[in-house]
Design a protein that fits this description.
Shape: elongated
Number of domains: 1
Distance between the termini: 73 Å
Number of strands: 2
Largest sheet: 2 strands, antiparallel
Strand order of the largest sheet: 1-2
Radius of gyration: 25 Å
């Protein structure tokens, strides 16, 4: 005669599985949080490295914080990221390429590094677009514009790419 499991035995097994799941789920959540932190740290390092490589190509100078368009210098202005987001006009694209997010792009290879996972999204653009706007969660310290890397006194205390806080 075959012996089947009783209802009590099945309930005990289910309870044990539930207890084990309750123990393991917080561990998985902590591991996921740790992985996100590691990814963010790696992206910030990559952003800093891209800027340092940019400096090596531009006589040790930091990227420009803003540029001129048709002879007018514009600062505190939203730049298209990527530069040809809304237009292929050469003057327009060149102006937007002066923005540090765009000027350091060849050294990063990927706009997604500029996004902060779980961060607030800033959508200041209105269409129509030629391309998809990049999500940018970092801003550039404009006080570094035109400075050489060796002119910064407190390198470890000077933010280069702080979070964009709106």
């Amino acid at each position: 005669m075959k012996r089947a499991f009783t209802l009590i035995e099945l309930l005990v097994v289910i309870a044990i599985i539930a207890i084990l799941a309750a123990i393991l789920f917080p561990v998985f959540a902590q591991a996921k949080t740790a992985a996100k932190k590691a990814k963010s740290l790696a992206e910030v390092k990559q952003l800093g490295t891209a800027t340092i490589i940019y400096q090596a190509d531009y006589d040790d100078n930091f990227p420009a914080a803003y540029g001129s368009y048709l002879g007018v210098w514009r600062q505190n202005f939203f730049h298209d990221v990527p530069a040809d987001l809304r237009s292929t006009n050469a003057a327009w694209v060149n102006w937007h390429n002066t923005h540090p997010v765009n000027s350091t792009q060849p050294y990063r290879k990927n706009y997604s590094i500029m996004k902060i996972d779980g961060g607030r999204e800033y959508n200041v653009y209105t269409g129509p677009f030629l391309k998809t706007p990049a999500e940018v969660g970092y801003t550039y310290n404009g006080l570094l514009q035109g400075q050489s890397a060796t002119s910064v006194n407190r390198v470890s205390e000077t933010p280069m790419w702080p979070r964009l806080l709106g």
